[in-house]
Amino acid sequence: MTSFILKLIGITCMLCDHIGDAFIGHFSFLNLIGRIAFPIFAFQLVQGYIHTHDTKKYILRLFIFACISQIPFMLFLSTFRNNYYLNIFFTLTLGIISLYLFDKVKNHYIGTLLVSLICVMAYLIHVDYGYFGVLVIFMFYILKDKKIFMLPCLALLTTLFYLPNIVAYSSIWFIYFECIVFTCFSLVPIYLYNSNLGPKVKYLFYIFYPLHLVILWFVKIYF
To answer: What pTM was computed for the model?
Structure first.
């Protein structure tokens, strides 16, 4: 499976998730499909980091699109909730910064501490997926040559992420269990990845993300 196909799967699952949020309500089957998206984007980010020739330029590009996407993201969120947070590009930006710092610092104990601090930052500034997003990105990087361990690690991280909600809303624990299962299901296409790029559409996700948010907001408000 090429990088292009992985991107298409991730984008399709993300679109399902956002359609579910906007028109059906949270916890629909479309939202469960949406759980597949982020691990794929996190994995792709790691692959991009490994193969990029200019990490700083990569970080800057992510940050620019994070800023561009924030207003579309807030417009989209306004159709079904009152609280706001920072979009997924900010999460990806913090994730790649954590990888960069981890590699830059020769002592891995200090590097891990820096990654932990970025996780705290992700939580405090309320990026999409919070600390969990940064940890998943870091996990894919650490296990890039040990794919056999990705499933138990992703299952553990996802369980810990949903645990507060499972405890707080024990009557619907099974919904969060389904979220964990679908999140882990993302590893099926990831395991099938063959390291080939496929068609070169470098900015597919970058452009699709803010564009589809604006379209969903427009349809929700005016139709």
So the answer is: 0.96
pLDDT tens per residue, range 11-55: 999 999 999 999 998 789 999 999 999 999 999 999 999 999 999
The Cα–Cα gap between 32 and 35 comes to 5
Residue 175: how many CB atoms within 10 A of its CB? 16
Q: What are 197's two structure tokens? A: 């790029």
Q: pLDDT, tens digit, for every residue of 131-163?
A: 999 999 999 999 999 999 999 999 999 999 999
Beta carbons of 79 and 221 less than 8 angstroms apart:
yes
Is residue 45 a contact partner of residue 90, using CB atoms and an 8 Å limit? no
Which residues does residue 86 pair with via DSSP β-bridges, in sequence order? 127
Cα–Cα distance between 38 and 60 in angstroms, integer? 20
What is d(CA 16, CA 33) in angstroms, rounded to the nearest whole number? 7
- Token match 């932990």: residue? 116
First to last CA, the chain: 38
Report d(CA 37, CA 223) in Å as an integer: 27
User: Phi and psi for 10 in degrees, rounded to 5?
Assistant: -60, -45
Task: Residue 85: count other Cβ atoms within 10 Å of its Cβ.
Answer: 17
